[in-house]
Amino acid sequence: MTVSLLKIEFSLPPADYDEAVVFLSGAIQHGWEESQAVDGTTHFSTYLENHEAGLDVARRIKELWPDSGIRTEESMSQDWGQSWREFFTPIECGGRFEILPPWLSEEGHDNLTPIIIEPKMAFGTGHHPTTALCLACLADLFRAGHLAADMDFLDLGTGSGILGIGLAKLGLTGLGLDIDPQATACAEENAQINNVADKLRVAVGGINSVPEGTLFQVVVANILSKPLIFMAPDIVRRISPGGCLALSGILVEQAPDVIRAYVRLGLPEPELRVSGEWCALLWTKLPTLSAPGA
After folding, report:
1. Quick one: how far is CA 234 from the chain centroid?
2. Is the torsion defined by CA of 239, 245, 250, 252 positive or negative?
């Protein structure tokens, strides 16, 4: 598909890196490219299809970091998939999974389970560090026996469906939810590409679209800390006794606030997994819980 794209590029010193990642995580859903210079300066680049929104993002970057050297470039009728071919590289996750684009699907490693993701303008390709972190956590939980092929799961905020597809390829069956209809269309396409459409059902909606009383043995949510805190009671009510919960999209300094939101609902302290400035929180073998409003 040929589209008109707006490319945004800017560079920042190490002291501004964490703040920039937080900003980009909220402003650009589908991800971005990073490269580092010898002095630690990070060069960021991304493509946006919506030029008006893209120019607004560029203006905000210039306001936040006036010395970033930000520049925009319009590429008329450029193919989005071809643009991703310039920098989409395979990603190994937890010694179990490998995220690949369709044009590299035959080049994966035999010892890794492939997750084929068709790049889309609006949704993740797996290059955000929390995606690899989540998949590595799921792989470890499966190896430890906390996940099994006969379990059911909820992938909340499924986006492009990567985590749901990973769980389906481990043999689990479940539901991927997203409030954006374009996300669910993307996830459905990726489920078809990966031959797991029979194991991953996708639907439009948030946590409250799950009927009361419906429980899942595994719940995963790679979103952001504030929504995870806000949705904590509703998430807790959907976990089966003895089940597992994996949360990510959380900066390390945000983890204590997220942990408090879930511990006050009766969960024990989670296992903390860290990758750079990001972390994941893992709970296994959860007891019978009682959350407000249950």
Report:
1. 20
2. positive
Chain segment 176-218, per-residue pLDDT in tens: 998 878 788 889 999 999 999 999 999 999 999 999 999 999 9
Answer yes or no: are the C-beta atoms of 281 and 246 closer than 8 Å: yes
CB 267 within 8 A of CB 286: yes
Measure the CA–CA gap between 44 and 215, rounded to whole angstroms.
41
> Residue 81: helix, strand or coil by DSSP?
helix
Contact 104, 90 (CB under 8 A): yes
Residue 8 CA, distance from chain mean position = 22
Q: Packing angle between helix 17-27 and helix 51-64, nearest 10 degrees?
A: 160
75 forms bridges with which residues in the sheet? 5
Residues ≥6 apart with Cβ < 8 Å to 92: 98, 109, 112, 132
- Select from 212, 200, 246, 242 the least CA-distant residue to 94: 246
210: Cβ contacts below 8 Å, ≥ 6 apart: 154, 175, 177, 238
**Cα four-point dihedral sign 49, 68, 254, 96:** positive
Tell me the residue type at 8: I
Which whole-number Å values give the CA distances from 285 to 135, 239, 291, in the listed order? 19, 10, 17
The domains located in the chain, with CATH, are 2-85 (3.30.70.120), 124-283 (3.40.50.150)
For the ranges 52-66, 91-105, 162-176, 204-218, which has the lowest average pLDDT?
91-105
